[in-house]
Amino acid sequence: MTEPLAPAQPAQPVQPLHHHPDPRRWAVLATCCLALFLVGLDTTAVNVALPAIGADLGIAPAALPWVVDAYTLVLASLLISSGALADRFGRRRLLRAGLVLFAAASALCALAPTPGLLVAARAVQGVGASMLSPVGLAIVVGVFPDARERARAVGAWAGVFGASMAVGPLLGGALVDLAGWRWVFGIVVPVAVLALGLTVRVVPESRVDHPRRLDLPGQVLLTAVVGGAVALLIEAPHRGATSPAVLMGAGALLIAVVLLVGVELRRTDPLLDPRLLRVPAFAGAVVAAIAVFVALNAALLATSLHLQDGRGASPTAVGAVTLPLALAATLVAPVSGVLVGRCGPRGPLAAAGGLLALAGALLRFGPDDITPGRLAIGLLVLGIGFGLANAPITTTAVSSLPPERAGVAGGITSAARQLGAALGIAAAGAVLARAAVGSEATTADVVPGIWALVLTCGAIVAGLASVLPRSRGRGA
Fold this sequence. Notes:
By secondary structure, the chain is mostly helical. The chain has a single domain, classed as Growth Hormone, Chain: A. Helix content is 76%, strand content 0%. It is built from 16 helices and no strands. Helix 1 packs antiparallel against helix 5 (133-143) and helix 9 packs antiparallel against helix 10 (244-266). The chain is globular.
């Protein structure tokens, strides 16, 4: 067994591999952000298209969450490994490979004639997307050696990701109404090709001199844990919590978790070192990322299904209701990056958690009938909180690991977000399934449970802010 991991100083600034600023660094940031935009957009745009996809391909409501989660669970499972591969083989090289695979899989999704092929293509999309987010973040960290400038860049990065997920329902709704659900996937292809061309032109190659060894057992076990957790959340409401299949799945998941921890503690270069969780700031950032994205994705799915199924609204109308969330997340995220650069991550994250909790409370309590106007106000508050949250989470997580593990740091942060996205969709789907399993409950009856989940996630994020650094950290 290796020696225990020495506690890291929280929020120490990462020194990039290149100590002189790249004159193309802002163009590099813009290119990586474009690739990242595709990842977030595809996570949420499909939510609005689910009813149309189900009607066209004959997918039962109970199986619809798999159209989203086939993408997010594969993405979450492979993010950390992709970061490690990028550190070893070259970050620009892996970014280019991810864009090619993502574009090809998006085209397959747009052409899929059956549910099985669509879900399979979504999983391949997840493989390509796993090469974009952590790799892009590692590239961005490497070209911004100045800590204050890097904080602004990370804020912009976080803002683009948040905006992409928030804009997803608006763009997805418009495409479904104007051109059909297949264009939700088809529109991605030319954007990915554009990002690929820019990557070849402006992004420098970078890798570490002594990369960590690949951890195949850890990757297999991590995939089993993430996939198993999401599968249980999706299937348990329909099969019954005490059904043999669910009980066996829960037992297998527990065994996989124990094996993952045991294997990773004994490896010299673990994929996911459990000892990192002994560093309070890092652990707090990871858990906060999960909670924030559970709240966002549960809220977006609840909004889409509540308005479309409960009120008969069009996909475009759903997108219009979520517009305040998108605008707030887009405008606030860069401000959050500046605040983190000036005064540290604790304050912005505490405010973010409080606003997420407030959004959940606004929609959970009050009149039973949630009007579109009230929903838009709640989503506006949620968008402000979401925009504030990403920069302190990303900055803290990346700053907690040494520079030669920048790819892995980005992978862990991105994996936490995507795991939260998958869990949020699965949890919301589990709540909404109560309205489709033979009971007299309607979608409107069970949606308050999702807003209670959002409130709880906000409270968790606010509490976790206390373990983050109060200031920018030494050298920042």
